[in-house]
Amino acid sequence: MKVVAAMSGGVDSAVAAARAVEAGHEVTGIHLALSRNPQSYRTGARGCCTIEDANDARRAADVIGIPFYVWDLSDRFHTDVVEDFMDTYAAGQTPNPCLRCNEKIKFAAVLDRALALGFDAVATGHYATVVESGGDIELHRAVDGAKDQSYVLGVLDDRQLRHSLFPLGDTTKDRVREEAARRGLLVADKPDSHDICFVADGDNVGWLKEKLGDRAPNHGGEIRDDATGDVLGRHDGTYGFTIGQRRGLRLGRPAPDGRPRYVLDIEPVSGTVTVGPRERLAVDRIEGDRLRWCGASLPAGTVLDGDAVTVQLRAHGAEHRARVAVGDDTLDVELLDHADGIAPGQAVVVYDGTRVIGSATITRSRRVAAVGAPGVGGVGG
After folding, report:
1. What phi and psi, each to the nearest 5 degrees, are found at residue 59?
2. Which of 122, 128, 254, 324 could form a disulfide with 304, with the two C-beta atoms 3.0–4.6 Å apart?
3. CATH superfamily of this structure's domain 217-276
4. DSSP secondary-structure letter at 281?
5. Model confidence pLDDT, tens digit, residues 65-110
6. Of 48, 98, 101, 294, which one is the catalytic site residue?
């Protein structure tokens, strides 16, 4: 096959490209220029989005012996990822920009361009596995559970999966680094990227404050106690908070019992942030929209319920046993294992064993009632 290898400048994508060549594919390396102004994105060799990363990717392509090009997708990236990130925070929600980048950029814009140019597939350094079963295409977890990235790939549809290669799904990170060194790739010891690529210094709150400024309705508001309704302090913007946050609350006085408080709810219209004890973070029901099927779709009315059905709610979070009801473009998830600190805007990804079934964007969650309490609290829009 003719394959485009998306090369970020990190070790994973370099080894993935090398493995694609070794598998007999005709491979062309590409690096994505995602910033209109490279100086405005993260500096330093961290594996994504910097000038140093582009140079690292080019050197790796030279060592592997494949053609290499830079594709400018900065306008598309700004619209589909950066603007989405700001809009989601402005709505009092918590986005996942890496998931949105996979959906809109790496496996949409890049794939569409690759197919138009006569390529058959896009290869990346993600840790996941694609399996063909009876004519259906399936996405499964990687062998290395600590590095598994199937969660952020849960937005890929059947067409995208059929044109995707994940050469690292059967190996571990340690072995990838060993292989890179063996192949003479200088990125063998390069650190992984953890920060959001378009936030240059890793200060998400500072970046959002600069970009959003006084943008209504998130400028300023009260921090209130969940149990009493008392005003405990004020803040400069709801974008500085996420559900489950403990640090940086700057409250005027401690809780009566001396225990830490956590963010329980964010109301962007009034600007109210509600805080309370950790046990009030427990959630037993989730609603989501923007439903995406990862492979074959399931009809509305389907209920997934069994020992192997789980959901994952964070990129490297735990699995939770669940009962999942499918709507027209929605999921209703009953968590059999409670989860803590679930925020609207995050993704809920549904698994059947190791297979990814699909995903949705969380719109609401229901907090577990405290023991002896008469009602149940709700979080979300």
Report:
1. -65, -40
2. 324
3. Adenine nucleotide alpha hydrolases-like domains (2.30.30.280)
4. G
5. 999 999 999 999 999 999 999 888 888 888 889 889 999 999 999 9
6. 101
